[in-house]
Structure formats: C-alpha cells, structure tokens
Amino acid sequence: MRVLTGIQASGKLHIGNYFGAMKPMVELQEDNELFTFIANYHSLTTSKDSKTLRDYTLDAVIDYLSIGINPEKTTFWVQSDMPQVLELYWILSKFTSMGLLERAHSYKDKVAKGINANHALFSYPVLMAADILILDTQKVPVGKDQIQHVEMTRDIATKFNNEYGEIFTLPEHQVTEDLATISGIDGQKMSKSYDNAIDIFMESEKKLQKRCNKIISSSTPLGEPLDYDGCNIYNLASLFLDENQKSELQDRYSSGKEGYGHFKKYLKELIWEEFEEAREKRAYYIDNIDEVKDILNMGAVKARNIADKKMTAVRDAVGII
Ligand code: ADP
Ligand code: TRP
C-alpha cells in the first residue's frame, strides 16, 4: 500500500506528538511503501519569518530521522525539493470550485484565529491535493482536522478523471480513532501552545526532572496509599510500560510506601531511557548534516521520478505542450 504522510514543522516536539503521530508513522514503515515529507510550502502560509521556517524545517527532518524514519525503507524529502507539485497545484486549481474551498473548516478556523486571509492559505487544500495525487497515494494517515482535505482531494481528482480518464488514484484517509489524547503537566491536552508539554529532546536529565516535577498531582501525604486512577504521572508513565509493568506500578501506588516525588523520578527515568537512542542519533545527525542532506536528496530524486511521470500524463491530458 502506498502511504503518504506530510508533516508541518512547527518547533519542538513533545511526548503527545510522539505517541499521537510519530510512533504510529514509524510503525507504518514496516508493511507499507511509505512516503514522508516536510511540508515547508504549506508552513510558509503561516510562518513568522524566513529563519524560523528554515530552522523548523531542518529540525523536523533531524527529529524524524532520529525518532526512527528509516531512509532505507521510507522515501523522505522536503516538499520544496519536488517543485513539480506546484505545477500540478495550478492545473488542479482549474478543477477546484470556489465553493469547495470556501467550505474548508481549516481555512475558516485559521481566519477565525486572526491569521491573515491570503490566497496561499485559501488554496492550501489544492496544494495538499497535488502532494497526494502526484504520487498515486492510496492512504493518507491524518489527524481529524485533515480528513476534509483528503475528501477535497478525492473531489478534485474525480472531476479531473471524469474529464480526462483515470489519471489519478483516489486516496483514502486513515485516522487512528482509538488514540487517546495525551495530557500535559497541567492535566489538559498536551500542546506546545499551552506551555504544558514535556519535550522529547530535553537538554539534560536535570531539566527533564524539573519538568516532571511540575506535573500536578493530588496532595495525599506521604505514607498513605495513592490512587493511580486519574493520576497524571501514572497516565504518562503507562505510555512507556507493558501490562506487567503497569500492574507493578499500580502496586507501588497502593503500597503507601512511596510518594509522588518517587513516581516523578520514575517517570523521568522512563522518558530519558525511551529516547536515549533517538538522542544519540540526533546528536550524530547534527554533527553530520551532509549525511542528512544526502538522505533528503536521495528521497527527493525518488519522489521526483514518480512525479515527473505523472506530470507527463497530466500535461498531455490537459494539452500543455
Ligand atoms: P500541538 O498541539 O503541540 O501544536 P500539533 O497540532 O502540531 O501539536 O500536532 C502534531 C501531531 O501530533 C498531530 O498528528 C496530533 O494529532 C499529534 N498530537 C499533538 N498533541 C497530542 C496529544 N496531546 N495527544 C495525542 N496526539 C497529539
Ligand atoms: N496539511 C497537513 C497538516 O497540517 C500537512 C500536509 C501537507 C499533508 N500536505 C500533505 C498531509 C499531504 C498528508 C498529505 O498536518
């Protein structure tokens, strides 16, 4: 199955991103033909300045490689290294009605949040359709907010195919329904916008411990049994544990011999250990940036080859000489 994931780079990654998006993506590599790119043309629609966009793009590349995107299995590139999508974006624009774009929730939400309405923001779904269709994508794993964009892609592709024959594959979206929302240190949904996140790549164990110490817990005094049910430290720790380990931790909570401080320390150890290999890889890639660029080049060449073939068919169909 050909699967495409597009990532908007938006700064430091946290544990919610890891369990909610990155880990499932890395797992997809095993039984699929995975194509993954950093959507920097898309990020341009909302980016603050050039430095931030450049830094975030490269950070995301390094973070995803470190966390387990395997360039031998997965085609991995930066969107702007496959400029063919911009040509397709223009051609698809002819098959995209104004009404379809005006109904896009994501556009309306962004404008409601005060982001300036401009044409790039408005036509964002057409570029996303081009990303998907140019590679004959079959499945697109997305968060709920992006389902409509995949539906719009099908709509645009159908219009095109009705006029010119079966040029485009109709993609399906895939949402991980049962995915729990991971809470931050204040118990609300972990998000970089709420200043409640625990980042994957903390500078030091000490800083990670400080962050874990800020997790809000109840005020049961030391010596009394603690309730793990609803305890945010327990919930976060259990992300890293199997069933046996979870029940051991539950016993520790019930024993009354340990306090929240102990469990915060334990959580810190779990997080630090889980990302040990990723931290080492990340340090390696930061020191060997040429290797990162080679990986991206290799991915871009492969993606461009597929895109070129598709564009030949598309140009021919619509009459662009
Ligand atoms: P943030 O809320 O920090 O800005 P994003 O909106 O950039 O995060 O999310 C990137 C990806 O990470 C999305 O696929 C989203 O579903 C996932 N994700 C973000 N926060 C969480 C969370 N708290 N729990 C589970 N998944 C999350
Ligand atoms: N719009 C997606 C997001 O914000 C990113 C994206 C761009 C994408 N192009 C894509 C995702 C193509 C999947 C396929 O998350």
Describe this structure as you would to a colleague:
This protein is mainly α. It has two domains: 2-182 and 289-318, 3-Layer(aba) Sandwich (Rossmann fold); 205-274, Tyrosyl-Transfer RNA Synthetase. 56% of the residues lie in helices and 7% in strands. It contains 14 helices and five strands. The strands form two sheets. It has a three-stranded parallel beta sheet with strand order 1-2-3. Strands 4-5 form a two-stranded parallel ribbon. Helix 8 (147-164) links the parallel strand 4 (139-141) and strand 5 (172-174). The two termini are 33 Å apart. The model has no long low-confidence stretch (mean pLDDT 95). Bound molecules: adenosine-5'-diphosphate and tryptophan. The site of adenosine-5'-diphosphate (ADP) has 13 residues, from helix 1.
Q: What share of the residues does DSSP label as strand, in percent?
A: 5-15%
Average pLDDT, all residues:
95
Attached small molecules: adenosine-5'-diphosphate, tryptophan
Order of helices and strands: EHEHHEHHHHEHEHHHHHH
Helix content: 55-70%
3D shape: elongated
**Alpha-carbon Rg, integer:** 22 Å
The side-by-side strand order for the widest beta sheet comes to 1-2-3
How many domains comprise the coordinates?
Answer: 2
Q: How is the biggest beta sheet arranged?
A: 3 strands, parallel
CATH superfamily of the largest domain: HUPs
For this entry, give a set of tags:
2 domains; binds adenosine-5'-diphosphate; 321 residues; two-stranded parallel ribbon
